[in-house]
């Protein structure tokens, strides 16, 4: 289990020996809100299926968006980052969508990568439980989890600015953000993500 971060906390992406992490995976997961009782017989109604989408938005040092990775563009222009595919229901344990980043090959023009989740069907976060993002070190055998950020914020928003990785000297650092937003796709979230830089 990685370090549990609170909103606004940051962590340098280094191994125990001080070397920088190279291959990282951002896993994002969620569940539908718990089933609710219904009718005279008190049977349980199945929770709604929640179709959230994980995306990554790339910014240069001036805060200008220069690239995006999402369900309709699964790889970054520089080839460093790859989305593993769309999950339409959030069903199952663990990561529902993942984005792999090879940090040394990220374009030098990119200063920060912001990870967001959004609801294309405009489902709101009061229907969502157990939303989290976690950073996994795929450059170390066993792929240990480095950091985890658990969301406890529900509400009528349709998107969330989850976390970012940003350059820190010759390496990178991970910061938990957890800001509410509204939008269906990564394109709708460029400005809210820029506000979180």
TrEMBL record:
Residues in TerD domain copies:
1-183
Q: Name one Pfam family in it.
A: TerD
Q: What is this protein called?
A: Tellurium resistance protein TerZ
């Amino acid at each position: 289990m990685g370090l549990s971060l609170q909103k606004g906390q940051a962590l340098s992406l280094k191994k125990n020996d001080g070397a920088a992490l190279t291959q990282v995976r951002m896993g994002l997961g969620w569940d539908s809100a718990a089933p609710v009782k219904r009718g005279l017989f008190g049977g349980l109604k199945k929770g709604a299926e929640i179709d959230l989408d994980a995306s990554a938005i790339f910014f240069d040092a001036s805060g200008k968006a220069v690239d995006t990775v999402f369900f309709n563009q699964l790889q970054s222009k520089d080839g460093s980052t790859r989305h593993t595919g769309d999950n339409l229901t959030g069903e199952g344990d663990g990561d529902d969508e993942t984005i792999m980043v090879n940090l040394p090959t990220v374009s030098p023009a990119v200063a920060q990568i912001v990870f967001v989740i959004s609801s294309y069907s405009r489902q709101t976060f009061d229907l969502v439980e157990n939303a989290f993002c976690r950073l996994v070190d795929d450059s170390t055998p066993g792929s240990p989890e480095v950091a985890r950020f658990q969301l406890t914020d529900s509400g009528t928003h349709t998107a969330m600015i989850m976390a970012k990785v940003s350059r820190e000297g010759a390496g990178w650092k991970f910061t938990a953000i957890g800001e509410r937003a509204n939008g269906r796709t990564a394109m709708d979230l460029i400005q809210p993500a820029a506000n979180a830089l």
